[in-house]
Amino acid sequence: MKKGLLLFLICFTVATSTSYALSWAYKFVVWEGGVYEVTEEFMAASDIGEKIGEVKRMADDRTGAYYGDASNYYEKGTRYYAIKGIDSGTAIAVEEQQDMWVKAVYLHEAPFHWTDILPYILMGIAAFFLFIVLSLRYASKKEPRDQ
C-alpha cells in the first residue's frame, strides 16, 4: 500500500511538472517606456522617417516579464522608425523585413523595472565619489604643512 502511494505521488509530481510557454494575445514592441501593438498595416517607404531604436531583448515566454526595448515577437536588432507626420508617442514603424515596415500603435506604459533607473543610480554613485575626491584634494591644499 505504501509503495503504491509513493509510486502514485512520484508519477503525479513528474506528470505535473511540465513547463508551458505563454500565448501572447498580440505582437508588441517596447520603445522608450511605451508598449506598442504591432498592426498588420504596412507602411510605404515614403512614410518612414529616421531610425529611433531597436529591439534589445526578448520578452520572457514563461513569466511574461519584459523591460527596456523589448518584443514578444521580433528578434534582437529589429529596428524602429519614426513615421512622417505622426507623433512617435502615438505610432511607430517596425521593420518587418528588409524595406518592409508595419505600423505599431501605442497601447500603454511599460511596467516599471529597476534597470529603468540604473543609469541614475550609477551617475549618483559617480558624483558621490567625485565629490569625495575633490573634497579631499581641497582639504589637503588648505592644511598648513609643518616644516
From TrEMBL:
Q: Where is the signal peptide?
A: 1-21
Keyword field: Membrane, Signal, Transmembrane, Transmembrane helix
Q: Where are the transmembrane segments?
A: 117-139
Q: Does the keyword Membrane apply?
A: yes
Name of the featured protein: DUF3592 domain-containing protein
Tell me the classification of the organism that encodes this protein: Bacteria, Bacillati, Bacillota, Bacilli, Bacillales
